[in-house]
Amino acid sequence: MSTASLGENALANGVTVFGGFLFEVIATFLFVLVIMTVTSASKGNGVIAGLVIGLSLMVIILVGLNITGLSVNPARSLGPAILVGGAALQQVWIFILAPIFGGLLAALVAKNFLGTEE
């Protein structure tokens, strides 16, 4: 691992910047897609929505924690990166841009291919 701990959003050893960015995009895409589907008026189920969203986040965290420290939330990454500095601050752009791209992609897929807005 690098000098900063993974909790400070430093990429794990062997994870390239592109790999970390791609992982964060995919993780955010999956998480937002789950949220949009389970909360959809036409496709969702409000009774279990909270459970499904919580379990989805748990699985994504368990998978991503040792890869990128997992953000899927730019606000969660920015404060610690500013306080810690170093590698975390140099890599914070990944944890800001990747969730934006992943979320936008999930919104497009949910609306246009899964019909969650019907």
Topology diagram in text:
Layout: H1 17-38, H2 49-64, H3 74-84, H4 86-112
Give a description of the structure.
It is elongated and about 45 Å long. The chain is mostly helical and 118 residues long. Helix 1 packs antiparallel against helix 2 (49-64), helix 1 crosses helix 4 (86-112) and helix 3 (74-84) runs antiparallel to helix 4 (86-112). The protein contains 4 helices and no strands. Helix content is 64%, strand content 0%.
Give a quick set of tags describing it:
4 helices, 64% helix, mainly alpha, 118 residues
- Structural class based on helices, strands and sheet pairing: mainly alpha
Number of strands: 0
Low-confidence segments, ≥5 residues, pLDDT <50? 1-8
Count of alpha and pi helical runs: 4
- The gyration radius over C-alpha positions equals 15 Å
Strand content: under 5%
Q: Which bin fits the share of residues in helices?
A: 55-70%
Mean pLDDT score, rounded?
87
Please trace the helix and strand order, writing H or E for each element.
HHHH
**What's the overall geometry?**
elongated
- The rounded distance between the terminal residues' Cα atoms is 46 Å
Briefly say what this structure is:
By secondary structure, the protein is mainly α. It has helices spanning 17-38, 49-64, 74-84, 86-112.
